Automatic annotation (TrEMBL):
Domain Dienelactone hydrolase, chain residue ranges per copy: 162-381
Source species of the chain: Eragrostis curvula (weeping love grass)
GO molecular function, one term: hydrolase activity
Pfam entry (one): DLH
GO biological process assignments: response to zinc ion
Signal peptide: none
Record-annotated membrane-spanning stretches: none
Family matches, as InterPro entries: AB_hydrolase_fold, Dienelactn_hydro, Dienelactone_hydrolase-like
Designated name of the protein: Dienelactone hydrolase domain-containing protein
Lineage: Eukaryota, Viridiplantae, Streptophyta, Embryophyta, Tracheophyta
Top-rank lineage group of the source organism: Eukaryota
Length: 385
């Protein structure tokens, strides 16, 4: 009996160490969980079968601008040959290729004859002959490295495909529902289901902005959010809006929570197809979008005790309201007494998670009031089925 108990203890320790070392994989849970317990990451992601969601794939198309020897008048872009050596090395590191080691003079042509063996497979993953940029607001962002082209085209297209989850009646007004920094988990799916049942019904769509990743703790969620391509996420939102409109939704709104709240406001500025926005406890950075240039009606909700300074605290809420006044679009900014960040999350799992973050518990009156305002706003600008 002692031998069996010792063997079980050793097996448990070995399993725990293995799980800890593979904690980044969706297939394994963290070491704090028993090897016999289901992975919380899998539990967060595996609600599709039980929920009435249709999983689809949406394709967005970006304009690609090739920078090699192609004059681009749009500032702040410059020709690749005009970049300083350090900047060029940074470009190559981003593209997975080896950087050029010799100095570059302004106006110098950049080709396989410029002093580097760029077509040597021993030194490069591929022969990087030109860099591309996907959006004019990401200066010098590298999209890909290509084999040598004597006459690279100035414009091209690149397709991006991502998963999305749809629930609700076809041909009803659509609402794009944007995730928190956790990813597409049970909580955002609960919100989408609830939204689809409001009023006469909506068709709710959740784009997977993290491409399948779901965070288990605050550190991982922060890492995922900081690594997000925010401009690319706006493109995902635009593609989601267009998918709904091309599949029966006459009008489409956008809503989001935390990170998704910031992105929903950004979509009201940057995506002309958006008909209305409701944002919860999140504001976009000035680099992403200026709410004073909003084109869609925006309603926003914040908690009085939100401690995320500059992002969703009361100061950020009041700053947003002043900017929306300048935009002259219909807008409302509501601050809920006694509420902290994420006050709309009311599931048992969410309450446990909020407690671990030091956030206040459920405030049912505030949640009900926020949902009623949400329903009235979307009904006003989108109509109902």
């Amino acid at each position: 009996i002692r031998l069996m108990a010792t063997a079980q203890l050793l097996l448990r320790r070995a399993s725990s160490a293995f799980i800890s070392s593979t904690s980044r994989s969706p297939l394994f849970t963290r070491s704090r969980c028993s090897p016999l317990q289901p992975s919380p990451r899998a539990a967060a992601m595996a609600s599709d079968a039980a929920a009435p969601f249709q999983k689809i794939q949406i394709q967005r198309e970006d304009t690609v601008r090739h920078l090699l020897s192609v004059p681009l008048p749009s500032p702040p872009l410059r020709l690749l040959s005009q970049l300083e050596p350090v900047g060029l090395q940074g470009l190559f590191k981003m593209s997975g290729a080896k950087s050029r080691l010799i100095p570059i003079t302004p106006g110098e042509a950049f080709s396989k004859f410029s002093g580097t063996p760029m077509n040597d497979p021993r030194l490069y993953h591929s022969a990087p002959q030109y860099a591309t940029i996907t959006r004019p607001d990401i200066t010098f962002a590298v999209h890909k490295a290509s084999h040598f082209m004597h006459q690279p085209t100035g414009l091209d297209s690149a397709k991006r495909t991502f998963d999305a989850y749809v629930v609700g009646k076809e041909n009803a007004p659509g609402i794009v529902v944007l995730q928190e920094w956790w990813g597409v988990d049970y909580e955002i799916k609960n919100h989408a289901i609830h939204i689809s049942q409001l009023g006469g019904g909506y068709r709710a769509l959740i784009p997977d902005l993290y491409r399948g990743k779901v965070a288990l703790d605050v550190a991982e969620a922060q890492h995922l959010m900081e690594g997000l391509d925010w401009q690319g996420a706006v493109k995902d939102i635009q593609a989601s809006v267009n998918w709904l409109k091309s599949n029966g939704s006459p009008k489409v709104g956008v809503t989001g929570y935390c990170m998704g709240g910031a992105l929903s406001i950004a979509s009201g500025v940057l995506v002309p197809e958006v008909d209305a926005v409701v944002a919860f406890y999140g504001t976009p950075s000035s680099e992403l979008a200026d709410p004073s240039k909003a084109k869609a009606p925006i309603q926003a909700h914040f908690g009085e005790h939100d401690s995320f300074v500059g992002f969703s605290d009361v100061t950020a809420a009041k700053s947003l309201e002043e900017k929306l006044k300048s935009s002259e679009v219909p807008h409302e900014v509501h601050i809920y007494p006694g509420c902290s960040h994420a006050f709309m999350n009311t599931s048992p799992e969410a309450l446990k998670r909020k407690k671990g973050m030091g956030l206040t518990d459920e405030n049912k009156e505030a949640v009900d009031l926020a949902w009623s305002r949400f329903s009235a706003w979307m009904g006003r600008f989108l109509g109902s089925a």
